[in-house]
Design a protein that fits this description.
Blueprint: H1 3-15, H2 22-28, H3 31-47, H4 54-78, H5 80-83, H6 101-122, H7 125-146, H8 153-157, H9 159-162, H10 164-173, H11 178-201, H12 203-209, H13 214-217, H14 220-237, H15 240-244, H16 249-274, H17 278-305
Length: 316
């Protein structure tokens, strides 16, 4: 997006032209990210011991969705300056002048308060506290503090996206347990290789706006190495639910197989880089990025599959 386009968008926004539509405000919620957040939160509710009335379960999921959307809106408010200069984000509502930064801030702040208060009133205070921590962590720790200051932004900031299954678990039990921490850690460890794979083939975008993603600061060689290391740590971690007994043989077999594919893709990214074939390495990084989305979805979907009567087979 050119400087002229940016200034035009800002002018339109400040003058009230191109007033935001419902779809523009919905885009502020980052619906694709929200869908994964809601899904993992639902899995947390489904696998937690005990029961939750369907109406309360729906309320909990709605609060998780609204809270995630609020985080997205607040992130877009704060990052509007760099979003306008990145190819991947230049079409967002604020850079395009369809929504003002002030409107996004008010929208996100209102949804944040509503989601946390509703979770506390209708579900329980532990789930509400975790939701508040999630929103605050994403805005203050990741967006405002880490993202523009350190290449470890994704490693530490990934905690925000890892909370939803823990929130879902707490919605049912009112507590945080080892099982819910494992669900948290799976997403936490998945986040670096997922986003670093994206950053490998989008390096120029991040470098152009001064965001110190790992490929920009440490180079692609180090990034490929870190992707391989984190992938090697992630795959065994995904099998921890089998060891702890809240996942069975179907989960274990399919997750192990998918993990082998994930490791193979990470290895291919590393090997292509060692050969000095940057185009091939970037292409394989894109393939890893896309597979990583399916991989995480599959892992959490398997928890639901094993909740179907007769499909849970304990590992002896």
């Amino acid at each position: 997006m050119s400087d002229v386009s940016i200034e035009t968008a800002k002018s339109a926004a400040s003058s009230g032209q191109n007033a935001g539509t419902a779809s523009d405000f919905f885009a502020l919620l980052k619906p694709r990210v929200m869908s994964l957040v809601v899904f993992t939160g639902f899995v947390g509710i489904a696998v937690a011991p005990g029961t939750l009335h369907p109406v309360l379960a729906f309320a909990a999921l709605l609060c998780i969705a609204v809270g995630a959307g609020a985080s997205g809106a607040l992130n877009m408010w704060y990052d509007a300056d760099i979003d306008a200069r990145m190819m991947r984000t230049a079409e967002r509502p604020i850079p395009q002048g369809r929504v003002t930064a002030g409107e996004a801030l008010g929208f996100g702040a209102t949804l944040s308060v509503v989601s946390v208060v509703a979770m506390g009133l209708f579900v329980n205070y532990v789930a509400a506290a975790l939701l508040a921590i999630t929103i605050g962590f994403y805005l203050f720790i990741y967006t405002m503090w880490l993202k523009r200051r350190t290449p470890q932004n994704i490693v530490i900031g990934g905690a925000a996206g890892a909370f939803p299954p823990m929130i879902g678990w707490a919605a049912v039990t009112g507590t945080v347990s080892l099982e819910s921490i494992i669900l948290f850690l799976i997403i936490f460890m998945w986040t670096p290789p997922h986003f670093w794979a994206l950053a490998l083939y989008r390096k120029g975008d991040y470098a152009g706006v001064g965001v110190p993603m790992l490929p920009v600061v440490a180079g692609k060689h180090e990034t490929r190495k870190q992707i391989l290391i984190y992938s090697a740590l992630l795959v065994p971690l995904t099998l921890a639910p089998v060891v702890l007994g809240f996942a069975g043989a179907i989960y274990g077999a399919v997750t192990a197989s998918a993990g082998a594919v994930f490791l193979a893709l990470a290895w291919q990214v590393w090997q292509a880089g060692k050969r000095g074939d940057e185009p091939d390495s970037d292409a394989r990084a894109k393939r890893l990025f896309l597979f990583s989305i399916f991989y995480l979805f599959l892992i959490f979907a398997l928890f639901l599959v094993e909740r179907v009567p007769g499909l849970y087979l304990p590992v002896i």
